[in-house]
Amino acid sequence: ERGLLRRSVGAVALALIGGQSLLLTAAVVILPSSSRQVAASGMMATSLSLDDLQVLTGGDEANRARTARKLDVYAASQWINANSRVADRVILFDDARGYYLDRDYLWGNREHSSYIPYDSFTGGMQLTEWLTDHSIRFAMINLNWSPVRDADPQGHELEALRHWYVDSPPQTPWRMTLADALRSGRWRPAMAANGVVVLRLTSAAEAAGIP
Q1: Which of 20, 91, 93, 161 falls between 20 and 30 A from 113, CA-CA?
Q2: What are the CA-CA distances from residue 185 to residues 129, 181, 188, 203, 207 (Å)?
């Protein structure tokens, strides 16, 4: 009986080790690690892909190129860093990854933060005034995670922004306020890449031509 028990325990241990090995292999070789791959495949994400392991051996330049290729908000973040003042702040919509920004940033989705008083706004003008009063001069909208996404926005970001957020936004109060702000002309597209749009916000004084 003891011999049978030992063999049974050994078989279970081998099965567990084998299962863990299969899971590790799947994580490294099969499962996606970028947001674009996750959205396209519908598979669960991994942080241990074969491509990610190249970080250990690649130099700074190679790692920057890899990040630019895999992270959809990277190009927009680098553009903001190069084209904004240190005091300028950024608001992120439909994304929470601001770690490549060298500027202070704020999550814009109502579900992400209650700091922005959306419930007190009666329209997009008030949202714009509140943001510019708090030194937020740039907005970054990741269309790859849009709740109304019915096509790949990459390559036609401005058309998707207008169609999904301005012409027919989701009928949730804060998104309708955002759509109204985008229609005001004070959120001006500044760059677009990889399904992400950067907009420059103008204050009331700037809109009136007051220096």
Answers
A1: 161
A2: 13, 8, 6, 11, 9
**Cα(186)–Cα(22) distance, integer angstroms:** 53
Residue 49 to residue 37: CA distance in whole angstroms: 12
d(CA 70, CA 204): 37
Letter for the amino acid at 203? S
Query: What CA–CA distance (Å, rounded) separates 160 from 137?
Result: 22
For every one of its 211 residues, what pLDDT tens digit does the chain have, with 9 covering 90 and above? 667 667 777 777 888 887 777 766 666 556 666 555 666 666 666 655 555 555 555 566 666 666 677 789 999 999 999 999 999 999 999 999 999 999 999 999 999 988 999 999 999 999 999 999 999 999 999 999 998 888 899 999 999 999 999 998 889 999 999 999 999 999 999 999 999 999 999 988 787 776 6
* Residue 84 one-letter amino acid: S
* Crossing angle between the packed helical segments 173-183 and 124-133, to the nearest 10 degrees: 80
Give the pairing type, strands 105-107 and 136-142: unpaired
Name residue, tokens 């999904």.
164
β-bridge partners, 197:
141, 192
User: Which CB contacts under 8 angstroms, 24+ apart, belong to 66-73?
Assistant: 67/100, 70/33, 70/34, 70/36, 71/34, 71/35, 71/97, 71/100, 72/34, 72/35, 72/36, 72/142, 72/144, 72/194, 72/195, 72/196, 73/97, 73/100, 73/140, 73/142, 73/194, 73/196
